[in-house]
Amino acid sequence: MKKIIIIAVIILALLVVGLIAINVEPQENEEAVKVGVVLNGYKDDKSWSQSHYDGLQKTAEKLGLNITYKEYVTTDNVAAEIQQFVEDGCKIIVANSAIYGEMIEVAAKKYPEVYFYHATGVGEGKNLTSYFGRMYQMRYLTGIAAGLQTKTNEIGYVAAFPIPEVNRGLNAFTLGVKSVNPDAKVYVRWINSWNSDDVTAKVTEELLGDRNIDVLAMHTDSVEPLRIANEKNVMSIGYNIDNSSLYPDTYLTAAVWDWEKYYTPHIQKCLQGKFEGVNCWESSDTGIISIAPLSDKVHSDIEKKIQQELERLNSGTFDVFYGPIYDNAGNLRIAQGESMTDNAMLNEFDWYVEGVVIDEE
After folding, report:
1. Whole-angstrom Cα distance, residue 109 to residue 34?
2. pLDDT for residue 70
3. Ranges of the chain whose pLDDT falls below 50
4. Closest Cα to residue 332, out of 353, 315, 318?
5. 3-class SS of residue 34
6. Residue 242 pLDDT
7. E runs forming strands in the chain
8. Which of 12, 36, 86, 271 is the residue whose CA sits 20 to 30 A from 71?
């Protein structure tokens, strides 16, 4: 009798396991959800667009998505690309640049059955969400690395445009520099382009030629500053993704994105019918932003200092733009005990902190 009971229990257990397996395994004829992605650069640009491509590829693997990419999409043809995605059956559309802002909001209203994800955008709605990361926090940490690494106290910074996003990063980087090296200055030149390799190379060459710069940072989607710094044996700090393998002799670290940490949980919610149409600005504790591993060229005392500051940022008890902070004309901008609001950081940053030198030709 005991044997019969044991056999019955085993059979029952096997049946339960079989039912569970049937329920969790996808049906063979079930089609993967189609996702269309609009990139303002190339998916292998070693920069901003590749950071999204790499993240989305990981998300696609985890969630079983069928992703189609359109590269180097301009504002003139983005509407047509979105329409084609919709006609092809895409249920989710991702756009990775603020330049598409108006067109994305129009498309979200035109195609209410499609869900839109807009990186660096500001729109929100029942089928539209926008998102960005507080990358200025990582720039602050890379500034600490630059401030402790420099021997000449002249640090270069090649930047796209003098807009709030770029100014915010530049100022945070400089505050990081000054927190460990009050004598250092950060010399900035503008490219007035996000990804023009020719212009970026020209500006970088001129900046390094005119100054005794021994550490160069960047806020541009072109990686020309890294290449030129490597040629001139100038230490460099990258952006968007970790390019240390390309320049092992001169690369220090980078402020980088890990977009999979955003895309996977948020797209998963969408697939579960729990889409969140909000505008969010993610902090360091989410893992969406981080600092790349420090190279062996970095002085030994830098890693400990950066880790201490990262822990402060993650704790929520400290942020970069806490006063007192003076601008580069000597004016008190943020008083002791005060901090900048998100609105001021996002939309009103038109000044530079002490230590920034706008290095015009």
Report:
1. 20
2. 98
3. 1-29
4. 353
5. strand
6. 98
7. 34-38, 66-70, 92-95, 115-119, 128-133, 154-159, 185-190, 215-219, 235-240, 251-257, 279-282, 289-291, 325-326, 332-334, 356-358
8. 271
Q: Which residues contact 51 (CB under 8 A, 6 or more apart)?
A: 240, 241, 256, 257, 259
pTM summary value: 0.90
Cβ-proximal residues to 61 (8 Å cutoff; 6+ apart), any chain: none
Distance CA 176, CA 310 (A): 12
Q: Tell me, what DSSP letter sits at residue 278?
A: -
| Per-residue model confidence (pLDDT) at position 301 | 86
Residue 359 tokens read as 């290095």
Give the distance, in angstroms, between the CA of residue 252 and the centroid of all CA atoms in the same chain: 18
Q: What is the DSSP letter of 64?
A: T
∠ CA 34-37-42, nearest 5°, is 140
Q: What is the pLDDT of residue 18?
A: 45
Q: Checking DSSP bridges between strand 289-291 and strand 251-257, what pairing results, if any?
A: antiparallel
* Residue 162: cis peptide before it, omega within 30 degrees of 0: no
What is d(CA 281, CA 26) in angstroms, rounded to the nearest whole number?
A: 34
The partner residues of 342 in beta bridges, in order of sequence, read none
Single-letter residue type at 47: S
Phi, psi of 335 (to 5 degrees): -75, 160
**pLDDT attached to residue 30:** 66
pLDDT tens digits, 281-293: 999 999 999 999 9
Q: Where are the beta strands (DSSP E) in 1-49?
A: 34-38
Q: Which amino acid is at 35?
A: V
**What is the C-alpha to C-alpha distance for residues 161 and 165, in angstroms, rounded to an integer?**
9
DSSP 85-111: HHHTT-SEEEE--GGGHHHHHHHHHH-
Are 243 and 227 within 8 A, CB to CB?
A: no
pLDDT at res. 361: 57
Interval 69-86: pLDDT, tens: 999 999 999 999 999 999
Instruction: State the DSSP string of 101-145.
Output: HHHHHHHHHH-TTSEEEEET----BTTEEEEEE-HHHHHHHHHHH
